[in-house]
Amino acid sequence: RSLNWVLGHSRWVQAVFLATVALNVWLYISIPKTFFPEQDTGRLMGFIQADQSISFQAMRGKLEDFMKIVREDPDVENVTGFTGGSRTNSGSMFISLKPLSVRSDDAQKVIARLRARLAKEPGASLFLMAVQDIRVGGRQANASYQYTLLADDLAALREWEPKIRTALAALPELADVNSDQQDKGSEMDLVYDRETMARLGISVSDANNLLNNAFGQRQISTIYQPLNQYKVVMEVAPPYTQDVSSLDKMFIIN
């Protein structure tokens, strides 16, 4: 019976067919072109990238500045963050948004709004992304998508990385283009005069312990409280960590 109806209303069937094709084309054009649909879980993750020569104390100040800016957003409920780890010029931030029924904007609009304010902070950048239930990729990155460059020649990799990054940053579809290449940091090498140390009766371990006590944040005790534990570390006063001349004021008593 249905087949007879279709054959008897061929114009209607053709119109429905064309409308179905047009609807599918419109859906293909309008839907987001992502591996998985973008979610609004109410959580944001941020990664801080500062100057490669920044000290731990200065990096801690940058983290506090960024957290203050994020807290001031009306759609943000809670912010926590930390710095340190394998790189002194990096940090992480975890942001909880207010429930969607209370918020004025979704997660992506909150990120766009914060991006304009965070860009005014000198010396460091904060890259935000919405936390997804399913995350693609095996490496931690400062963005939702990552492109890995491999080369047999380190010089070629250092030459082409900024070129590719600049080209990607010029695309209007992309934002927060960044790189994890670290090759511009300042460093200082300390060379022991072992002959003089031996003549004065100073061992290498004594010199290493001196530097560790001054700059290594050596843990010397733990303060136990009912709800938490606090590590007590030994270090020189912050002003002495900013200038290499502070080494002239350190002595080993034998």
Automatic annotation (TrEMBL):
Stored Pfam families: ACR_tran (PF00873)
Keyword Cell membrane: yes
Annotated Gene Ontology cellular component terms: plasma membrane
Keyword set, alphabetical order: Cell inner membrane, Cell membrane, Membrane, Transmembrane, Transmembrane helix, Transport
Residues annotated as transmembrane: 12-29
GO molecular function: xenobiotic transmembrane transporter activity
Keyword Acyltransferase: no
Organism domain of life: Bacteria
InterPro entries for the chain: AcrB_DN_DC_subdom, Acrflvin-R
PANTHER family: MULTIDRUG RESISTANCE PROTEIN MDTC (PTHR32063:SF34), PTHR32063
Name of the featured protein: Multidrug transporter subunit MdtC
